[in-house]
Amino acid sequence: MLRIYDTKSRGLAAISAKSPVKIYACGPTVYRDVHLGNLRSFLLPDLIRTALASASIECVVVQNITDVGHMVDDTGLEAVDPGQDKMLQQAAIENVTALDIARKYEAQYFADLTALNVHLPDQTPHASETIDQMVEVIAKLIELGFAYQGDDGSVFFSAEKFSSYGAISGNTLDQLKPGHRFDGEVNAAKRFHGDWALWKVSDERRTQLTWETPWGVGFPGWHIECTAMSLNAFGNHFDIHTGGIDLRFPHHENERAQSNSLTGTEVVGSWVHAEHLLFEGRKMSKSTNNVVLLRDVMAANISPAAVRLVFLENHFRQQLNLTWDTLVAAEQTIRRWSDQIELAKDVDSELKVEMSSHLLNNLNTADAVLALRAKEKSLAKSPSARANAIATAADLLKLDLTTAPLELSDEIKNLVTQRSDARAEKNWALSDQLRDELTKLGYEVSDANSGTQLRRAILPPT
Ligand SMILES: [Zn+2]
């Protein structure tokens, strides 16, 4: 059984072993590259899957791809104006179609997940391909009296009709001031300031990403997308809904109001949110030139496994202040472990059980990594047992410790051979001298069991 913190009940929820566990994860808005802060949130369903897998519990993960309708700039990337569709803006900047933008950044997103060794979602419905379902649920909300058409033709959800609004975030309707931006705009057509658009009519300036509906030509609101897709995938109930902490309000609050009103039941079992990530003490933001992508980290010769390790070493509910120093230290750890695993023969069952119990206890990945570190220390004098422990932990936590072979010039290959010979002859002075030469040429030299191991030197930006 997995115990996990549920934002709504503000306590640990038990996810029973009924198989498979149904998980819906809010996915990316695919108009730009995701940065490390986004990736931390998107890792959350994979961590849940990892914890469940350690207890042989299966799960199904559905993650939406937002390729239309997300208007609010909640990213800190101020290049995109709030109130404008992000896809359309980026399409204008890159001079291609909105769909080109969506497919380009979706492919990049999955490449980043794959590099982080994330098990890709089982289903990835696209907003642009789920319009029929959205129209269907909006029509039903109108029929049930939870939604209405405003003077401009747009359809709004009537917030006051949903009595437990605010249960997730604590932002109840009486606390919300008029003029609060729910959808990136203050819309005169809605009856109450807390209402939000389910369907927005568009004018002739919007030439892409519009659809014909009973309410005119337009496009969906962001929140209704997740209601339509999650109900479509799972029916009236699923176990876990994940997202970044910033999605608590208004996105998840509004989604819950819509989904529960439609079905007359509490659709989501547990709401699980990943905390923010800071980089060098500051929020990731383009305006402060503080956006770091996975490929920036890889350009510093730091592996995606090191990034995954840092994420694991910090509990998902704790704010993480990531620094280049932390990433460098994690890469050094990954390299140290990688140099040792070839001696691994058996599974370290004791460690596996201990780590699994940490994972099942509110995804305590930090203690799971600490368990490995303690074991590594305790087995300092037993290389093969230590290798078993490292390989077992790496397998459980999905840390890829394989080292991709480098393409080396003849000059470098020659130096490596000379150094191996020097070591075989116990000529330590020459061996050290050759190591220094390789270091100057940008390589890090370590001595794995099979011989000299060469890697590119870690080069964080200065
Ligand atoms: Zn969502």
Characterise this structure:
This protein has 462 residues and is an alpha/beta fold. Helices cover 41% and strands 16% of the residues. It has three domains: 2-150 and 158-173 and 221-277, HUPs (Rossmann fold, 3-Layer(aba) Sandwich); 300-312 and 323-397, no CATH class; 410-456, no CATH class. The strands form five sheets. Strands 5-6-7-9-8 form a five-stranded antiparallel sheet. Strand 15 (443-448) and strand 16 (451-456) form a beta hairpin. Helix 13 (410-424) runs antiparallel to helix 14. Mean pLDDT is 91; it is low at 72-82. Bound molecules: zinc ion. Zinc ion (ZN) is lined by residues 26, 226, 251. Pfam families: CysS_C, tRNA-synt_1e. It comes from freshwater metagenome. Its EC number is 6.1.1.16. Residues 407-455 form the Cysteinyl-tRNA ligase anticodon binding domain.
Annotate the secondary structure layout.
Elements: E1 2-6, E2 11-15, E3 21-25, H1 36-54, E4 59-63, H2 86-94, H3 98-115, H4 131-143, E5 147-149, E6 155-157, E7 196-201, E8 211-213, E9 216-220, H5 222-234, E10 238-244, H6 248-263, E11 268-274, E12 277-279, E13 282-283, H7 294-299, H8 304-313, E14 320-322, H9 324-340, H10 349-360, H11 365-378, H12 383-397, H13 410-424, H14 428-440, E15 443-448, E16 451-456
Helix pairs in contact: 1-10, 2-3, 4-5, 5-6, 8-9, 10-11, 10-12, 11-12, 13-14
Bound molecules: zinc ion.
Zinc ion is lined by residues 26, 226, 251.
